[in-house]
Specification:
Pathway: Amino-acid biosynthesis; L-proline biosynthesis; L-proline from L-glutamate 5-semialdehyde: step 1/1. Its EC number is 1.5.1.2. It catalyses: L-proline + NAD(+) = (S)-1-pyrroline-5-carboxylate + NADH + 2 H(+); L-proline + NADP(+) = (S)-1-pyrroline-5-carboxylate + NADPH + 2 H(+). By secondary structure, the protein is α/β, with parallel strands linked by helices. The chain has 2 domains: 155 residues, Rossmann fold (3-Layer(aba) Sandwich), CATH 3.40.50; 94 residues, ProC C-terminal domain-like fold, CATH 1.10.3730.10. It contains 12 helices and 8 strands. The longest helix is centred in the C-terminal third of the chain and has 22 residues.
């Protein structure tokens, strides 16, 4: 895909363009962006062509158009999209906006919905993906490739998008909270915060790599680290006495529930 259109060029919109460009696509970039500084950034950094005042050209020339605006801005903008959308497929990264909602407002027949996380900025995001019923196989494959350019695309039925938000979109913040807590713990026992954070990051990376390479469940690895009357079992006991496991489960569930409540 060499002709990419994007409406909205904020941080997530730029991350999508970076991902597509890194995978060899999007040589022609058509951008609609009302913020002048962001528009100039798209033009000077990515060679984008300004279609802010000409959505007809954007939808005519682009093979796919990405909606990367704020969710609350779509209703007003859709009035300008619907007359020109034609048969152009649309990818939406608008949180809380369903496939049906996007179709109803814009008139697009082929719609993909993405749920990335903040890690899309470094091409390491899990990206939940679902499609409208009228999406062709060609569009499904293309949009899935775009999702993978941001990290890891995970195709799910739309009813599970809130679960993706709980485990990934919001879940990345839970991971940040854990790493911060670990760094505070290191500080509490004598290691400066910055050094503690570096240690925590390496420990997390090592844990992830161990799980991936050994293909072992985390609970089994925990038992391998815990020796009788040792240090680790004391720490694990402290975590569980503090409600660590049910708190994490509850955080994911509550984020997913809130996502469901916000959907329309």
């Amino acid at each position: 895909m060499q002709q990419l259109g994007i409406i909205g060029f904020g941080n997530m919109g730029e991350a999508l363009v970076k991902g597509v460009r890194a995978s060899g696509g999007g040589k022609t970039l058509l951008v609609a962006e009302k913020n002048q500084s962001r528009l100039e950034h798209a033009i000077t950094t990515y060679g984008a062509e300004d279609c802010t005042g000409d959505l007809s050209r954007l939808f005519t020339e682009a093979q796919v158009v990405i909606l990367a605006i704020k969710p609350q801005d779509l209703e007003a903008l859709a009035k300008n999209i619907k007359p020109v959308v034609g048969t152009t497929p649309v990818i939406s990264i608008l949180a809380g906006k369903t496939l049906q909602y996007i179709h109803d407002l814009t008139g697009a027949q082929e719609v993909a919905r993405f749920m990335p996380s903040l890690a899309a900025q470094v091409q390491r995001s899990v990206v939940g993906v679902c499609y409208s019923e009228k999406s062709s196989e060609v569009f499904r494959e293309l949009s899935y490739q775009i999702a993978n350019s941001l990290g890891l695309g995970v195709e799910v039925p739309e009813r599970l998008m809130p679960a993706i938000i709980g485990t990934s979109g919001s879940g990345i913040a839970f991971a940040f909270a854990y790493l911060h807590a670990m760094a505070l713990g290191g500080t509490k026992v004598g290691i400066p915060y910055d050094s503690s954070l570096e240690i925590a990051l390496d420990v997390m990376e090592g844990a992830i790599q161990t799980i991936r390479e050994t293909k072992t469940q985390p609970v089994e690895l925990i038992t391998k680290v815990c020796s009788p009357e040792g240090t680790t079992i004391e720490g694990i006991l402290a975590l569980e006495q503090g409600g660590f496991t049910p708190t994490i489960v509850d955080a994911v569930e509550r984020a997913a529930l809130r996502s469901s409540q916000l959907e329309q």
